[in-house]
Amino acid sequence: MLNCCFTLDAKKIFLKTWRIPIVASSSLWSNYICNNSNIFLRLIMSFEEIRIVCVVYVSALAPLIYLIYKRDSLPRYVLTLYACIVIACAFGWELWFNYGWMDGDSVNIRRSAALNTWLPQNINWLMNSLADAGTIGLGGLYLTWLLCNRDNAIFITWSWRAFSIFMLWCVGQNIGVEMFLYHDQLAEGNILSWAPLAPLGSYVNPELIEFNGRRIMLQTQIPWLILPPIIYYLAIFLKKRDLA
After folding, report:
1. Which residues of the chain have pLDDT under 70?
2. Pairwise CA distance, residues 98 & 4, whole Å
3. Which of 22, 185, 191, 239 could form a disulfide with 110 if both were Cys (CB 3.0 to 4.6 A apart)?
4. Beta bridge partners of 210
């Protein structure tokens, strides 16, 4: 009888001894899951979000990697031109649109939590500026050169044919990006900041095109109406300086 009572008391003591850490561990684990559930959800992306992230990083970094790898064989003015376009895009509108500096919404407000995680606000403007300079700027000039029968003279004297091709490329890609890549971020109700190369801001911003519920607005087109002639003129100036 004494042995039986002793055994029961031992079991009670054992259970009481281990109950507290077990309950505490369970509570800690529950708190951990709750506190980190937002992080887990932010890491999960839809196919559309994966596509956006991949396009942004590839279009930004692939030209930069190529330029670094080929830096010894490329003309000197190419790298200078690339750097100038990056600066023009960053300070012309990308920084302003990114942070919503003047009467605009920041990019974190205009897009999903997953995109804010995989493409953080503080590098978003830089990635867009690198893509603008590499894929659109230099890529457009290279395409123009090919369509002009690889004629180097288009970078020595102004050619309206070359400029028209380059201008069409810049405007066309911008419409494509807004229609199929950033349409959610530029949807109705999302306000973009005023910027030096978008001087009318959201104050004078009529709708230009509407397709399948997606809109093309004047404000986002203006930078790529102003910048192409500047890029083309700068390419000619730098090329001629290198030849002098």
Report:
1. 1-43
2. 74
3. 185
4. 215
